[in-house]
Amino acid sequence: MAISKRVVLHFPPRLVEQPIIYRLVKDHNLVLNILKASVTPKEEGLLVLELSGDRNDYDKGIRYLTDVGVRIQSLGQNIVRNEARCTQCGACVVVCPTGALAIDPKTRMVNFYEDKCTACELCVLPCPPRAMEVHF
Predict the structure, then answer these.
(1) 10-55 pLDDT, tens per residue?
(2) Confidence category of residue 106, pLDDT binned at 50, 70, 90
(3) Residue 29: strand, helix, or coil
(4) HSE-CB of 61 using CA atoms within 13 angstroms
(5) What CATH number is attached to the domain comprising 33?
(6) What's the rounded Cα separation, in Å, for the pair 112 and 15?
(7) One domain, residues 82 and 48
(8) Could you list the residue range(s) of the whole structural domain that residue 106 is in?
(9) Nearest-angstrom CA–CA distance, 111 and 96
(10) Number of domains into which the chain is organized
């Protein structure tokens, strides 16, 4: 049975320069899509990934990550836009690091591309009418 989940991986400094992601692909047959990355040598690394593959391979891959010391956080939340509240002000566009929120140059309306959203929550606080909401 196939599975696809979004997860946040926190790498301790000792693992940042190790081929952890390569092992997920090669040894555990997982397909991954990097949604967000922040990796600096000798500091903690952070990756937001969508991991896909066979359920058994996925479970083995997660077990591998845990065994080597990667902290895993499930992305069990989504950002949604409350269309009734949105005033199209664009405050969210300025802070969105992934391009999930963008102003259409023709209509001047704010588009929300959910498939690009990593649920980082940066758009929630600056939204004056509180149209951007976190759903668990």
Answers:
(1) 889 998 888 999 999 999 999 998 888 888 888 888 888 889 999 9
(2) very high
(3) coil
(4) 28
(5) 3.30.70.260
(6) 35
(7) no
(8) 78-135
(9) 12
(10) 2
